[in-house]
Amino acid sequence: MEEKRSVYMDHAATTPTRPEVARAMLPYFSERFGNPSSLYTLAREAKEAVEEARRKVAAAIGASPEEIFFTSGGTEADNWAIKGVAAANRKKGDHIITSSIEHHAVIHTCESLEKQGYRVTYLPVDEFGRVDPATVEEAITDQTILISIMTANNEIGTIEPVAEIAKVAHDHDIPFHTDAVQAIGAIPVSVDDMGADLLALSAHKFGGPKGVGALYIRKRTRIGTFIDGGAQERGKRAGTENVPGIVGLGRAIELAVAEMPEKSPRLAAMRDRLIRKILETIPDTRLNGHPTERLPNNVNVAFRYVEGESILLMLDALGIAASTGSACTSASLEPSHVLTACGLPHEEAHGSLRLTLGSRNTDDDIDYVLSVLPGVIERLRAISPLRGET
């Protein structure tokens, strides 16, 4: 076994804030600390920095600056999109369509609305985690007011056919929302090409700071105010702006989109080698998610007869940071709702491992993981009660 290293492979959970981003943010903590809502020079500097970041976010996704609204992150953006559209269209209808593999920011928001009397259809997915646009159309009623399907899944990396789904939505005059948190900086994202009326993103997934994100709202989309109390964000999201965070978001998305043509193929090549070697060297293993329509940095595999938490602990002892599913639910004893929706039995879903790559990962990192992972699985299977049950 090789000497222990330090390898971070959980970029779907969060990414390190890039040095260029941190440098761009620093002046707005101290020298340029003004409140953007005030009128003097210091405040105008802060206001201009916010608007410059808004222009950068808009340019990255093919939107207009006035369609970008800053939030505290992707979770808030998803909440606002779904609850805001639901509230603004209550007289029109009470039915929402989403999928069974959405991030909990969407699923729990929909469940909250169900308690208020809304009806929600949670569409099934195929074995690869893909939503069939035909099932979306079949689920539409004259009371449907929103369709929400993520761009790419945070656990298994599957990329959804959002453009086709958006077309179905628009054919029935229904707004379409997509959680694009995992997609920004990984695959091309254009709100017009995708047909998105609402799109959520989060800075810390692509080299920006935690605690800041944005919601794209297409012009003329009916949506309610999310936070009352002030005129910020054109009166729709009150509260003094997080100027350093917003500046960081703008710089991060600018860099991520510019570097994507070089970065994504490099990560995809490492991803493919990692998947191929794991499946070749470790028996009773399966790939989760679509084999080709997947994010360039995502590897998710299920090992029979072992528990994912045990894999993580042993990998951590070897210096490898990974995940056994969504970081937001890593403390849960329930199996991944994404994997069970794809048809995995509970015991196999519990044995999943997610490795998500980033800019700092190298071929040497891949070699190291491949050198230690087979031994980890072999040792865990040797003591596993699950193996004796089959």
UniProtKB/TrEMBL annotation:
Predominant place of localization: cytoplasm
Cell division is among the record's keywords: no
Domain called Aminotransferase class V: residue spans: 7-369
Keywords: 2Fe-2S, Cytoplasm, Iron, Iron-sulfur, Metal-binding, Pyridoxal phosphate, Transferase
Listed cofactors: pyridoxal 5'-phosphate
Listed GO MF terms: 2 iron, 2 sulfur cluster binding; cysteine desulfurase activity; metal ion binding; pyridoxal phosphate binding
Pathway listed: Cofactor biosynthesis; iron-sulfur cluster biosynthesis
EC number, UniProt record: 2.8.1.7
Active site: C328 (cysteine persulfide intermediate)
Record: residues binding pyridoxal 5'-phosphate: G74, T75, N154, Q182, S202, A203, H204, T240
EC class of the enzyme, as a word: transferase
Annotated GO CC locations: cytoplasm
Subcellular location(s) per record: Cytoplasm
Note from the entry: In Archaea the pyridoxal phosphate cofactor is not covalently bound to Lys but ligated by other amino acids.
Family: Belongs to the class-V pyridoxal-phosphate-dependent aminotransferase family. NifS/IscS subfamily.
Subunit structure comment from the entry: Homodimer. Forms a heterotetramer with IscU, interacts with other sulfur acceptors.
This protein's name: Cysteine desulfurase IscS
Source organism (scientific name): Methanoculleus thermophilus
Gene assigned in the entry: iscS
